[in-house]
UniProtKB/TrEMBL annotation:
<protein>
    <submittedName>
        <fullName>MerR family transcriptional regulator</fullName>
    </submittedName>
</protein>
<dbReference type="InterPro" id="IPR047057">
    <property type="entry name" value="MerR_fam"/>
</dbReference>
<feature type="coiled-coil region">
    <location>
        <begin position="76"/>
        <end position="103"/>
    </location>
</feature>
<dbReference type="InterPro" id="IPR000551">
    <property type="entry name" value="MerR-type_HTH_dom"/>
</dbReference>
<dbReference type="InterPro" id="IPR009061">
    <property type="entry name" value="DNA-bd_dom_put_sf"/>
</dbReference>
<keyword id="KW-0175">Coiled coil</keyword>
<dbReference type="Pfam" id="PF13411">
    <property type="entry name" value="MerR_1"/>
</dbReference>
<feature type="domain" description="HTH merR-type">
    <location>
        <begin position="2"/>
        <end position="71"/>
    </location>
</feature>
<keyword id="KW-0238">DNA-binding</keyword>
Amino acid sequence: MLYTVKEVAELSKVTVKLLHHYHRIGLLIPTEISGAGYRLYGTEALERLQQILLYRELDFTLEQIKELLQGNPDRSTILEEQEKRIQQRKQRLERIIETLHKTKTSRERGEPMEDKELFKGFEREEDWKAALQEQNEYLKETYDYELLDSAPVEPQHMNEIALEGAAFMTSMADGLRTGRKHNDVAVAALIGRHLEFLKEHGHQISAEDFAAQA
């Protein structure tokens, strides 16, 4: 079965623009191009896209992913290595989640965290920059926007933003599962609180711009 680029985007939860970019750089070539010029993708292309997305989750750059997938390496070997890396990342994320919960509790109580507890999971500024590298690369390629500029990355500040982001996404997902629509009053209130939080933390964004990014 062959899928159009729009169908692949819906299936894989990536944008059509990103699939076009992968095609342009030779990372993901369509199975065939129709007589009308439409990109069509078969099973092998979908499996390759899965591998690409798994490597992206592991913070590999697109150039590194391209090199890793050259020559059509054995898929089972790739999946085994990716599973191993993801398990390692899971353990690290569990430490980060623990730090985030402690950060939230300390804010609610108005008590500062102990220095040794503050940076568990992200011990250095460089750790945050490494974690944001893939997102920075995507924004630079897609929107010509540099996320990681010369400004320092403050771990506690980033922990608070990450905690708010995780809570926001969880609440949005819960709302969708219960059948709430995008124009529901509760959804609008949730987005409003999230935008206010971002504003308080130095990220000015309008509701219109936020909706365009969603």
